[in-house]
Amino acid sequence: TTTGKYYWIPTERVASIEFEAPHRPRDLVWRRASMVVTDGPDGIVYIPALYDSVAADIGDELRLGRATSWTDEEAGPVRGSGQRVFLIGDDAQSIMELATLRFGA
Asked: Which of 13, 15, 95, 96 is surrounded by the most beta carbons within 10 Å?
């Protein structure tokens, strides 16, 4: 948040997220957004724009969030590297393409 506090908000309580356009380098790592939460509190938040990559050998395109790659290990979950992606219906959209997300509408 803009107050420096860290919160976990259950997904089912998020009503909408309106992303601000990126203005500074920080916005390519933490996307600033206005979040409306059912039963509050609402506010300005920062949403991670990059996946936390455990691989040390990822390329610059992934490290800088200019691409997204998926690792599918047989014994584990599918993990993303690079720019965060949301599955909206059948379409995958990167966090930098989004302006507004509305949930339960």
From this structure: 95
